[in-house]
Design a protein that fits this description.
single chain, about 200 residues, alpha+beta, six-stranded mixed β-sheet, about 40% helix, about 20% strand
Length: about 200
């Protein structure tokens, strides 16, 4: 079981584009030379999932053709918690982690609603959580108290294609994204065309 990234974002009602507030990641399972491209694709996936999830909802979105999923919870105040983990990672633990991280972020940055541009913040409590939660069995001992069965019932499992708007394609969305360089888009198209193991979404 593996967690790739934990992120906190803010949905912006004016621009409709989520603002990145904080993020930590562990890409050590990927080759050094592919980490930049993986990081860009991760940014794209996080922003897309955050923008397509309504306030007050939680869902788990499969990242199509790879073994990772994005767990997301958008609170009614538009703060977004996200965790990208492999498909084996326990859903209950992922959402408990999101609750914990978002609560700590709000305490640490009380004026988060005023942040208008992407931040590169990597708070220490998020780094500690990334390490601690890599072993969900250990983390779950603490989390059992925080999570209830009712919260799990509200989680919707979707594929990234399901959250795209009608008539919208992933290729077109990637072309418009500011999170992906032209190299990353070309990499995705080449991998998709050749139908190799790097098929990302």
């Amino acid at each position: 079981m593996k967690i790739l990234a934990i992120a906190v974002m803010r949905q912006d009602a004016e621009t409709k584009e989520p603002v990145a507030l904080a993020r930590v990641e562990d890409l050590s399972c990927f080759s050094y030379f592919t980490r930049g491209t993986i990081r860009e694709h991760l940014s794209f996936a996080l922003r897309t999932v955050a923008s397509r999830t309504k306030p007050g909802f939680r869902q788990t979105v499969g990242l199509k053709d790879i073994e990772f999923v994005c767990h997301v919870h958008v609170r009614s105040n538009n703060i977004v918690g996200l965790v990208v983990a492999d498909e084996e990672y326990p859903v209950r633990v992922a959402f408990s982690m999101i609750t914990d991280i978002v609560n700590k972020y709000i305490q640490a940055v009380p004026k988060w609603q005023e942040i208008k541009t992407d931040q590169k913040a990597e708070p220490e409590f998020m780094k500690e959580a990334l390490e601690k939660y890599q072993n969900p069995k250990e983390a779950d001992k603490v989390l059992k108290i925080q999570q209830t069965v009712d919260e799990i019932k509200s989680i919707m499992h979707k594929n990234i294609d399901d959250i795209l708007k009608r008539g919208e394609t992933l290729d077109a969305l990637m072309e418009k994204s500011n999170d992906l360089s032209s190299t990353s888009v070309a990499f995705f198209k080449t991998a998709k065309k050749q139908n190799q193991c790097c098929k990302a979404y």
